[in-house]
Amino acid sequence: MRTIALPDELPFERTDLTQLYDYRSSLEINKQQIILNQNTFSFLMDGSKEVYFDNTALSITNSHFLLMKAGHCLMTEKLSDIENYRSVLLFFSNETLLKIIRKTAIQSVKPPQIQSVYGFQYDEFIHQFVSSLVVVSKLAESIQSKLLEVKLEEIIIYLTEVHGPAFIYSLLSNSKNSTQKMIQTVENNLLSKLTIHELAFLCNMSISTFKREFEKCYGESPIKWFQNKRLEHAQYLLHNERKISTEIYLEVGYENLSSFIQAYKAKYGTTPKQDRKN
Question: How far apart (Å, rounded) are the C-alpha atoms in residues 101 and 51?
C-alpha cells in the first residue's frame, strides 16, 4: 500500500495556507499510511474513522470530529450503514494558526500532555459550522481562500472557549528527537497489533533503522520484546481479572488460541489454564 501525502495529492488548483476538501468515498481503507503536511480538521459526517499517531490513537463515529497534528499517521475509514464515507477536511498551517493566536490574543498555556490528535463531540454550533463549510466548498477557489481563514479563526476561537487553549499549543509543540519519539510510539502501542512496518512509519524511520534503534534502547528485537510484553499482559489478565484464554488471546495480539497457548507455555513453562489455577 503506497503512502499518501495530504493535502498535496488532493486536486487543488492553488496552494493556500488554508484549504478545504469535501471528501467522499464508497471504499473502506485499513491503516492507510498518511503523511499530513498540514494540521487537519476532519469533520466526519458519514462512516467511522480510526487513526494512529506516534503518541495517540482515536476511534470515532460521526458523533465526533478530529483535529490532527501534521505528521505521520495510519488511518482506517469504514462505511456507514448506507455504504458511504464522508468527511469535510480543513487543512491549515502553523503559520496561519500563529496569526490567529496573535490576532485574538489566545492565552498561552503549557498542555498537560502533548497529543497528536484530539477528538471533539459535535454540538449545535459545530453542526452549523460544518454546514457553512460545505457551502464554502462549492464557491470559486478565489473566494474560498478569503473566507477560509475567517472560518478557521471562528472554529479555533470557539473550541478554545469551550475546551481551553491547551490543544492549540499541542499542535505547535516541537517534535521530540527520533529516539524519544520511537520510545513513545512503541510504549503507546503495546497492545495495538501494529506491524513493525507500521510502527516504523509512525516514527518516520525505515524498517532497518527502526529495528536498529529499537535494539539499542531495549536490548532485544522488536518481535521478541512485543511478544514478551503481550504475554506479561496476558498473565495479568489471567491472574488479576480472572479471564480465560479464549477471552484474551485476540486482545494480546494472537490470531488463534493454539499459537497463544504455545507461546505462553514457552515463556512460563505452563499453559494459561494451569497458570490461572495457581
Answer: 27
CB atoms under 10 Å from CB of 20, counted, come to: 26
Report the share of the chain in percent with pLDDT over 90.
Answer: 72
Cβ pair 152, 92 in contact under 8 A: yes
Q: What does the angle CA 112 – CA 175 – CA 62 come to, to the nearest 5 degrees? A: 65
Question: Following CA atoms 247, 250, 254, 258 in sequence, which dihedral angle do they give, to the nearest 10 degrees?
Answer: 30
Task: Name the DSSP letter for residue 236.
Answer: H
Mean pLDDT of 186-193: 86
- What is the DSSP code (8-state) at residue 138? T
- CB 52 within 8 Å of CB 176: no
List residues bridging with 112 in a β-sheet. none
Residue 108 DSSP class = P
Helix, strand, coil percent values for the chain (each to nearest 5): 45, 20, 35
Residue 28, classed as helix, strand or coil, is coil
Dist. CA 35–CA 32, nearest whole Å: 10
pTM, entire model: 0.86
Q: How far apart are CA 111 and CA 106, in angstroms?
A: 14
Q: Which amino acid type is present at position 14? A: R
Beta strands in the chain (DSSP E): 4-6, 18-25, 29-36, 39-46, 48-52, 57-60, 64-68, 71-78, 85-92, 117-121
Tens-digit pLDDT profile for residues 8-36: 999 887 677 899 999 999 999 999 999 99
Question: In terms of Cα–Cα distance, which of 168, 133, 165 is closest to 149?
Answer: 133
Which residue matches cell numbers 533503522?
Answer: 209
